[in-house]
Specification:
275 residues; alpha/beta; TIM Barrel; 42% helix; globular
């Protein structure tokens, strides 16, 4: 049986073009999936978010997930009940949107900023309510690793629902002390999505894999063997790559994600052979 290609790239990849044109180029480069930011696109090309799923479908792509806004996500953990209610309500509305437009997965942040709150019971209660809504709408949630090593683990260890997993962002992980290795080692069976990109170890650059300092071979050895989701890039071009233009940049991006997928598969095969 031929290997199923499950390679995606976020619909914003650093070039200002109308969304339908970006989607056409993504498909033309060889990708078969994309993800979208769940807000209306503004100037210079105004597109309403409710029109985006149909655009993705018409482009011949799978809409892997939506990434919802993370403004006020720290309020999930707030002692103030009204603040928590407001942010929980927004996420439940977005889950309803996923149900309406047949979108299987919602990616969300659970914290924001450089000094986010520590995990606490308020956040657990907030996320429990959001997950209950996800179960009702039959839409999965992937919480993304961002500014702390412990927040995602805190929730995964306490909320056992099959409707909540995590989105592994390789660039975010590179900037954390422990690089979120425990997520892949202990919770790999709950990996729902990937945001793959590289950086210089200092800032969240969103470079193509191989352009920075991430040890992709080492990451491949940690990657869960039974991952069935998409290998998805969340990348923008470097200053030099901007000169390539969008079509050649996407061709390079497809080569890079194909390399990562092959590398991760080879790393798992080698590890299993050695056991």
């Amino acid at each position: 049986m031929a290997h199923e290609i499950k390679r995606g790239i976020f619909s914003w990849f650093g070039f200002v073009l109308p969304l339908p044109e970006r989607l056409r180029l993504i498909k033309g480069a060889g990708f078969n999936a994309t993800s979208i930011w769940w807000e209306d696109e503004q100037e210079p090309f105004v597109i309403h978010k409710q029109d985006m799923p149909e655009m993705v479908k018409k482009a011949g792509l799978v809409l892997e997930n939506i990434h919802v806004p993370y403004n006020n996500s720290n309020d999930l953990w707030s002692e103030k009940k009204q603040d928590r209610e407001d942010v929980v309500r927004k996420h439940i509305e977005w889950l309803h949107d996923c149900s309406r437009f047949d979108i299987p997965l919602m990616v969300m942040h659970i914290i924001e900023g450089g000094e986010p709150p520590a995990p606490n019971e308020y956040g657990l209660k907030s996320m429990t309510r959001i997950v209950e809504a996800a179960e009702h709408f039959k839409v999965k949630i992937a919480i993304e690793n961002t500014h702390r090593d412990d927040s995602v683990i805190f929730l995964l260890s306490r909320i056992k629902s099959s409707y909540m997993g995590f989105c592994y962002d390789s660039s975010h992980a590179m900037l954390r002390k422990h690089r979120n290795e425990i997520l892949l080692k202990d919770y790999g069976c709950r990996l729902f999505a990937t945001h793959l990109s590289d950086n210089d170890g200092c800032f969240d650059r969103h470079w193509l894999p191989g352009n920075g300092k991430i040890n992709w071979e080492g990451l491949g050895a940690l990657f869960p063997e039974d991952y069935k989701g998409f290998f998805t890039l969340e990348t923008v071009p470097s200053e030099e790559e901007k000169k390539l233009g969008p079509e050649k940049f996407l061709a390079k991006a497809f080569e890079k994600i194909s390399w990562v997928e092959a590398l991760f598969t080879a790393s798992r095969w080698t590890e299993n052979k050695g056991n």
